[in-house]
Amino acid sequence: MDSAMTSAPQHFLNTQDWTRARLDAVLADAARMKHEPIGDALKGRSIALVFFNPSLRTRTSFELGAFQLGGHAVVLQPGKDAWPIEFDLGTVMDSDAEEHIAEVARVLSQYVDMIGVRAFPKFVDWSVDREDRVLKGFAKYATVPVINMETITHPCQELAHVLALQEHFGSSDLRGKKYVLTWTYHPRPLNTAVANSALTIATRMGMDVTLLCPTPEYQLDERYMDWAEANVIESGGSLAVSHDIDSAYAGADVVYAKSWGALPYFGNWAPEKPIRDRYKHFMVDEAKMALTRDGVFSHCLPLRRNVKASDAVMDSPRCIAVQEAGNRLHVQKAVMRALVAR
Amino acid sequence: MDSAMTSAPQHFLNTQDWTRARLDAVLADAARMKHEPIGDALKGRSIALVFFNPSLRTRTSFELGAFQLGGHAVVLQPGKDAWPIEFDLGTVMDSDAEEHIAEVARVLSQYVDMIGVRAFPKFVDWSVDREDRVLKGFAKYATVPVINMETITHPCQELAHVLALQEHFGSSDLRGKKYVLTWTYHPRPLNTAVANSALTIATRMGMDVTLLCPTPEYQLDERYMDWAEANVIESGGSLAVSHDIDSAYAGADVVYAKSWGALPYFGNWAPEKPIRDRYKHFMVDEAKMALTRDGVFSHCLPLRRNVKASDAVMDSPRCIAVQEAGNRLHVQKAVMRALVAR
Amino acid sequence: MDSAMTSAPQHFLNTQDWTRARLDAVLADAARMKHEPIGDALKGRSIALVFFNPSLRTRTSFELGAFQLGGHAVVLQPGKDAWPIEFDLGTVMDSDAEEHIAEVARVLSQYVDMIGVRAFPKFVDWSVDREDRVLKGFAKYATVPVINMETITHPCQELAHVLALQEHFGSSDLRGKKYVLTWTYHPRPLNTAVANSALTIATRMGMDVTLLCPTPEYQLDERYMDWAEANVIESGGSLAVSHDIDSAYAGADVVYAKSWGALPYFGNWAPEKPIRDRYKHFMVDEAKMALTRDGVFSHCLPLRRNVKASDAVMDSPRCIAVQEAGNRLHVQKAVMRALVAR
């Protein structure tokens, strides 16, 4: 359906690629559609949702978002109910992959108006995973807009998170809020995507951001640290890294939790396990939340209760994780509208 | 989409929870929609279909039912294309489950207007399975109506079954009909859900019901025997248990077949195998059907031919299993309409 | 939804079953809808897409095709998210299959207006696979039209291929074109379906067709050779088999590539492996394409780059494989319209 397309399509790969004005417009549109969910902005339009990994919220919210605007989402799972895909250039494809991203992206572009992609890291070599080549492969070859549904960042989650904070504080201006992004324990080393994203968007919104993690090894990739620093310069606010729970929580307005694996151990996770096991006490609990300034808690979900956050925190009225998840629907509808608007 | 919801949502977990008047209204609405399938009662609305087990009829009929009424169904398969879920309270979630039913149900309630749940027993411990905790977990935490798509009962099948019988006999009043629920052989011990449901609805409709099974060990759980006895008191009709094929079939108007595992061997199935193997002759065949009063045969499907019922019975005009399956579409549309009607 | 159906339904199992006039009408309708994609010819209608094997293009294009015409597609994967199915008659079903095609096809016919079926060969015994019994089982028992979504032929691909050639040559009349169907290497022995189909439709369109393959063992099943010969008599054109690359490519207007396993080794593939390994040079590359008369290249996809065709061929403007894949959407919409038109 790209017949009328004469220039390269716009994509939504990272919030950092979009102007603040455009992000603000999407957030405002999302807030509006939350109260008026049914429309026809995508009437007769379609999106392919390409999942290389499981999903509950992303799949449901994109599928319903398309439906509520008159469109249709097709869900594809390459290697499961579709064919495995090659992403390297020039390969003699005599191994597992049955087709190349060049054909997949071009063919899907014949059928649909947008393509969403979820592709988590392989967790073997961070220098490879950090190139985000699955997403970039789609963006390179597709002739329709591509949306990041979580790869090594999760920009849709960022927007849902910010919308939930704006609702909570009753203002679209989040400057001056003290924001803590805290690492938490999980039995396995997880993707840094949501942590990268939280750091990116919290600084973009001009908040005073503290990245709380057990040791310097748990710092995030320099690309996202650099983005955050650039954002501080542009938007005001501040950025600090801390390994001290009490001072980080002290006076916080927002606590956002996420577990992730330490990048220096990427692909060689055995020695990281005893380190992470020493920091189970990073779990968000009532005692820690009591240190905040009546702070609000959130998480991207899925969340392991009593591992990442206690039952008491999750069931507290200060937990807005469910609202944030609900906002996925609204912000993604706004992103889709922004990408296909004529 | 639960913003206007001020009290606990209504659910459709079991027919026994609903008044007879309400069930009759749903059946009448289903019969009407069978002749006028397209409508807009669910325009812009949605349902999440959460499948922990396979499905052909249930999935297809719910998905199309939503579509034919202007709505949309999202199909989710936790542990397969969504995350595995924890149902216990207070658990330290450091094992397989990535999120808790509290979040799953609350988040889905943000997106959809109804949630359908299919969750078969685990077949390890009946005292656990009989608590139906997956379904009850959704019902507890969801803020939108929950529909049982088969757990340890199968109320949607009950309605489709009754509608097919009403069509066959040309009357909504089934009182006075002799109804036989017969156990049949299957190589594996199966769920008692449809048997529990058949016993429940047949007595609810005031029929003279015989539960035919090989031995007393194949009787159903006391909860459903109790429901059936209460129904006989309320609706008239009768309830008997028999282990004699000839007398059970004699003069029957309806033969409904189902295989299930004997509850005393639940989770320790090896010693049950030689018992069930002795009763392969419970298969429904022409000789048995000849004992009935020109009786009609049905089954919930899927059905193994020449194991549960012979080819001759299945291909006979007295077999209404396909019509019953077709009615799933109509009764489920009526249930969805009843649950979201304003 | 077959209540108004009084005679046997029409199916689309093979192009060879349809008159040339009807195929031409479908192609014309597809070309028209390519420029006017949104309509209501399937308003309130539905199709079940039954996949026994993976799919990307077929699933996406059927699902979107139904949507763009106001209908809805339900995707089913028997043995994966639905129950395994028995296709033999009279079987005592005490093995894996939980239900019989008779019930599956009849029940689906209660729900939907059409059924699409993808069922690849089992690759064990060609004398069994060539009976196409999964597709024929659906066609026998369904009371609604059945569409072949690739079994041992791939008629939807045929139509998309022809439409792409008609677009390329700017004429619906393809007579006089020199058409080469070339075998190519693939690490595994593949289905002959698309090769059978290409041979069938290319001769039907009256082209001068050469089947290029390594040895006589790679000729196609006599059924399709016979169809092709009958088509030559009816439509003009010609049919030749060649094992010589240079003369086959010389002066060609169309090169269509496909890999397949040699039928004499069906089910006993080990001795075929060293044979096929000797013919890796059948890969379509620029040197071979230079022998053609400015020929156009296509393939049904998925395609392994630098195994079946080189990067240079795939990325050349003479490659129309992506357009052909895009045409799947349009021709399938036209087929669905043709089957449910009243």
TrEMBL record, chains A, B, C:
InterPro entries in alphabetical order: ArgF, Asp/Orn_carbamoyltranf_P-bd, Asp/Orn_carbamoylTrfase, Asp/Orn_carbamoylTrfase_sf, Asp_carbamoyltransf_Asp/Orn-bd
Residues involved in carbamoyl phosphate binding: S55, L56, R57, T58, W83, R118, H154, P155, C156, Q157, C300, L301, R328
Site (Key residue in conferring substrate specificity for N-acetyl-L-ornithine versus N-succinyl-L-ornithine): E98
Pfam families in UniProt: OTCace, OTCace_N
Pathway per the UniProt entry: Amino-acid biosynthesis; L-arginine biosynthesis
Cellular location(s): Cytoplasm
UniProt domain Aspartate/ornithine carbamoyltransferase carbamoyl-P binding: residue ranges: 10-167
Source domain of life: Bacteria
Catalytic activity of the protein: N(2)-acetyl-L-ornithine + carbamoyl phosphate = N(2)-acetyl-L-citrulline + phosphate + H(+)
Keyword flag Transferase: yes
Keywords, ordered alphabetically: Amino-acid biosynthesis, Arginine biosynthesis, Cytoplasm, Transferase
Enzyme Commission no: 2.1.3.9
Residue ranges constituting the Aspartate/ornithine carbamoyltransferase Asp/Orn-binding domain according to the UniProt record: 192-338
SUPFAM superfamilies linked to this entry: Aspartate/ornithine carbamoyltransferase (SSF53671)
Positions of post-translational N6-carboxylysine modification: K308
Function field: Catalyzes the transfer of the carbamoyl group from carbamoyl phosphate to the delta-amino group of N(2)-acetyl-L-ornithine to produce N(2)-acetyl-L-citrulline. This is a step in an alternative arginine biosynthesis pathway.
Quaternary structure annotation from Swiss-Prot or TrEMBL: Homotrimer.
Family affiliation: Belongs to the aspartate/ornithine carbamoyltransferase superfamily. AOTCase family.
Designated name of the protein: N-acetylornithine carbamoyltransferase
Gene giving rise to this polypeptide: argF'
